Amino acid sequence: MAAFIAKQMVGSQLNAVKGAAGGAVGGDGGDDENDKEKEEEAERERQEAIREAEERRKEKHRKMEEEREKMRQEIRDKYNIKKKEEVVEQAPQEEPNPLMRKKKTPEELAAEAEQEDLDDFTNGDPTSGNRKLKNSIETQVNEIKTQIEGKCSLQ
User: Residue 36, Cβ neighbours under 10 Å: how many?
Assistant: First the structure.
């Protein structure tokens, strides 16, 4: 009980000191809107500073690359070296977001499904594919048997 009373007395004195300090430490709760506005302004300033720093960095690298290219060109001119022509092959670029890709038409979907159904063995009928595969394997086995028999009869 004594600790509770001591805490109450010291706590009230600490709150008075905080209020006298201008609310810099804790505040009295009325400055929450001002604090939020200040934080938002500080965040905007921080984002702006980051953006400006990024622009300065890009500009610096662009200037450095221009200087390098200038030096490269001087060396090419000095030694009569022709600049290699860069062949830019335009590879099909994947869209960054797969949810935003071009949707296929029903005709395209039907054509893809038909191509999947038709392959080397099935030709549209799964049972005939099994038969063709079985016949193909039997034919190969028979050829190997005749080759083995032919070699055995020679010896």
Answer: 10
